[in-house]
Amino acid sequence: xxxxxxxxxxxxxxxxxxxxxRRLADILKLDYINLSELVLNEKLYRNYDVKRExxxxxxxxxxxxxxxxxEVSSGIVVDSHYGDVIPSRYVKKVIVLxxxxxxxxxxxxxxxxxxxxxxxxxxxxxxxxxTLNALxxxxxxxxxxxxxGKSVDEVVEEAxxxxxxxxxxxxxxxxxxxxxxSDFTSLFQF
Length: 190
Known about the structure:
Elements: E1 6-11, H1 17-28, E2 31-34, H2 35-41, E3 45-49, E4 54-57, H3 59-72, E5 76-79, E6 91-98, H4 101-110, H5 115-126, H6 129-138, E7 142-146, H7 152-163, H8 175-178, H9 181-187
Parallel strand pairs: 1-5, 1-6, 2-5, 6-7
Antiparallel strand pairs: 3-4
Helix pairs in contact: 1-7, 4-5
């Protein structure tokens, strides 16, 4: 059986995946790969969904290519909100970055995202979509970090503790039980 070489940093857009994944890869002296960039650069997609403004990954081509990359690497930190597409046999840990939905909305608005895309990502964060997808494929290896109000260094330190098995229990964030009625109202007002 192939050694589990991949540490996946997942989460909705705007949670800090890229900076955390890059920093983690540097510290651990592992390769870094951004799955979205790989898919675009190597044309590993079937088509473009204009309505959702996203490429549809060709899983057959993608799986073949990611297997080639993993097999020649000594280890990889994967940056992706769809890290669940990595075959489980390669995955050591999945760390899902979670951000308070009100802060996520603020960040995506500042980036100039369209309202529909902001809503889609707020809803994904509210229902733990990245975590649920990861649990479906990588059960027993999925952890969350609440990045709200934390520096990049603090998040990276928590991620290192997870990678080095210094975290005994998994705690999952349930925004739906935490948010007030006025929070929900403000989330979807633009």
